[in-house]
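Appendix B. One record, verbatim.
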Amino acid sequence: MLSKLAKPDSRGMIYGSYGVIGSTGVLIIMNFGGDLFDSADGTIFEHRWPFIIAFLSMFVMFSLTTILGLCGKVNV
């Protein structure tokens, strides 16, 4: 999908930026989940927080992609 949007002369820069932004997002989400894991004291979700945060972030992106795809904004 990204290759359809990017112009041929700038694809390398766009692919690199996409990778850096995606990796940064993963680091931020996992850091947030790890902080919740470390700070949880006796709550019901204490050891599950990293997995819950990862699931929620993936679910939000899946939902956003599905909604935009159904509205015709993104061809998936």
